[in-house]
Amino acid sequence: MADSRTATKPQRRTGAREAAAQATRDSILKSATKVFAKYGYDGGSVEKISKAAKSYDRMIYYYFGSKEGLFIAVLEGIYKRMDDAEAAIALDASRPVEALTEVIRFVLGYYRRNPEFVTLLNTENLHKGRHISKSLRAREYSSRAVAIIAEILASGAAQGLFRRDLIARDIYLLIASTGYFYTSNRHTLTAFLGEPLESPEAITHWEDFVIETVLRTVRADEAQDNNTPPHEDTTKWQKSQPAQSRARSSSRT
């Protein structure tokens, strides 16, 4: 019995050390995500990150090798969280119109609910993607998103609802661009257009418009009847704007 107890103690201590190490790594990664989102890559110093994580600079180098290694891990982390969230959606590819609509709602909603995701991608694009290009895992996350759309498009084509010449990557880029651009530029566009793009009415209007646009793009010619409702009253969401803003908008048309 004594030998058995002695044999299990090192395992318990090892398990506790591993848990503590993982907790430290997770804390650094979480803090780095916030610091890089706030200060960018250049302004997000190792010192700021270790202070936010209540850790030490040397621990960042121990777990991630360098500041760049940490930033790559942050980018991989935000992609993985989006990938996991998308994988959790209950999609029925046998109902391709509804499934594609759900994908669109998810993508647009995810960007809106996760501003750090957009900010960090903006930062990486300023660096011409030089950090994420060194990631060995980034492509696996995009592969799943494109594969989901490919399955939906194939189902729609088999049912005669969608065109057969569609490329899943193109539809993915169309959906992602409409959500990403709107979210990343909402502040400047609000000022430029004189319209409150962050209002619930504006967000709903844009989401409906994107859904209509994508469905019109993928529909087979023979299926292009009047089942897809036309985009209703394009100024409906603007009614809550101040009169001055509406006038400014109208003057540009």
Largest sheet: none
Helix tally? 11
Oligomer: single chain
How much helical structure, as a percent, in the residues? over 70%
Rg, rounded, reads 24 Å
Which structural class matches the secondary elements?
mainly alpha
Distance between the termini: 86 Å
Kindly estimate the percentage of residues that lie in beta strands according to DSSP: under 5%
The chain-level mean pLDDT equals 84
Overview of the structural elements:
The structure is a single chain. The chain is built from 11 helices and no strands. The chain has 253 residues and is an all-alpha fold. Helix 1 packs across helix 4. The longest helix has 42 residues, at 2-43. Mean pLDDT is 84; it is low at 228-253.
Secondary structure layout plus pairing:
Layout: H1 2-43, H2 46-52, H3 57-64, H4 67-87, H5 96-113, H6 115-126, H7 138-158, H8 168-184, H9 186-193, H10 200-218, H11 243-251
